[in-house]
Amino acid sequence: MDWLQVYGQLLRIRIFEEHVNTLYRSGKMEGLAHLYTGEEAVAVGVCQALRQDDYITSTHRGHGHCLAKGASLDRMFAELLGRVDGYCRGKGGSMHIADQERGNLGANAIVGGSSGIATGAALSARRRGTDQVSVCFFGEGAFGQGILYEVMNMAALWRLPVIYVCENNLYNEYTPAGETTAGAMRARAEAFGIPAHEVDGQDVRAVYAAAERAVSRARAGEGPSFLLCQTYRFHGHHVGDVNRAYYRSKDEEEHWRSSRDPLPLLAGWLLERHQATPADFERLEAQVRAEVESAEAFALAAPYPDSGEVTLHVYA
Amino acid sequence: MDWLQVYGQLLRIRIFEEHVNTLYRSGKMEGLAHLYTGEEAVAVGVCQALRQDDYITSTHRGHGHCLAKGASLDRMFAELLGRVDGYCRGKGGSMHIADQERGNLGANAIVGGSSGIATGAALSARRRGTDQVSVCFFGEGAFGQGILYEVMNMAALWRLPVIYVCENNLYNEYTPAGETTAGAMRARAEAFGIPAHEVDGQDVRAVYAAAERAVSRARAGEGPSFLLCQTYRFHGHHVGDVNRAYYRSKDEEEHWRSSRDPLPLLAGWLLERHQATPADFERLEAQVRAEVESAEAFALAAPYPDSGEVTLHVYA
Amino acid sequence: MSTRSEVVAAPVREITFAQAVREALAEEMRRDPAVVIIGEDVAEAGTPFKVLSGLVEEFGPERVIDTPISEAGFTGIAVGAAMTGLRPVVDIMFGDFLTLAMDQIANQAAKVHYMSGGKLTVPMVVRTTMGATRRSAAQHSQSLHAWVSHVPGLRVVLPSTPYDAKGLLKTAIRDQNPVVFFEDKMMYSLKGEVPDADYAIPFGVADVKRPGKDITVVATSSMVQVALRAAELLEAEGISAEVVDPRTTVPLDTSTILASVGKTSRAIVVDEGYRQYGVTAEIAAVIAEGAFDHLDAPVRRLGAMDVPVPFSPVLEDLTVPTAEQVASAARELCGR
Amino acid sequence: MSTRSEVVAAPVREITFAQAVREALAEEMRRDPAVVIIGEDVAEAGTPFKVLSGLVEEFGPERVIDTPISEAGFTGIAVGAAMTGLRPVVDIMFGDFLTLAMDQIANQAAKVHYMSGGKLTVPMVVRTTMGATRRSAAQHSQSLHAWVSHVPGLRVVLPSTPYDAKGLLKTAIRDQNPVVFFEDKMMYSLKGEVPDADYAIPFGVADVKRPGKDITVVATSSMVQVALRAAELLEAEGISAEVVDPRTTVPLDTSTILASVGKTSRAIVVDEGYRQYGVTAEIAAVIAEGAFDHLDAPVRRLGAMDVPVPFSPVLEDLTVPTAEQVASAARELCGR
Ligand SMILES: Cc1ncc(C[n+]2csc(CCOP(=O)(O)OP(=O)(O)O)c2C)c(N)n1
Ligand SMILES: Cc1ncc(C[n+]2csc(CCOP(=O)(O)OP(=O)(O)O)c2C)c(N)n1
Ligand SMILES: [Mg+2]
Ligand SMILES: [Mg+2]
Question: Cα–Cα distance between D294 and C299 in angstroms, integer?
Answer without folding.
Answer: 15
